[in-house]
Amino acid sequence: xxxxxxxxxxxxxxxxxxxxxxxxxxxxxxxxxxxxxxxxxxxxxxxxxxxxxxxxxxxxxxxxxxxxxxxxxxxxxxxxxxxxxxxxxxxxxxxxxxxxxxxxxxxxxxxxxxxxxx
Length: 118
Description:
- It contains 3 helices and 4 strands; from the N terminus they run ββββααα.
- The protein is mostly helical.
- A hairpin with a 6-residue loop joins β1 and β2 (about 20).
- A two-stranded antiparallel sheet has the order 1-2.
- It folds into 2 domains: about 15-60, no CATH class; about 60-115.
């Protein structure tokens, strides 16, 4: 890939905003990526700041996963219990399997949470 401005020069990266190739002469280093122009650099900074503000205001990252995980555990236990008590064997097996799927989803999200540190 070549620089979008200097076609004869090999690009060192892509603009974070418009995905055009940029050479060393054109690149604006933003610390979190490259920009090809001042206007793209401004747009990337605005976007990053909006993301930081949303995270600070809503703070969803650390709170939603435990809620989903706990919901999966609760619903999994409900389905397993309901399936075990069901007289119709096909419906009972289906409900137990659904409960096991939900409990597995909770276990997987717990493992992923531990590995990623979220």
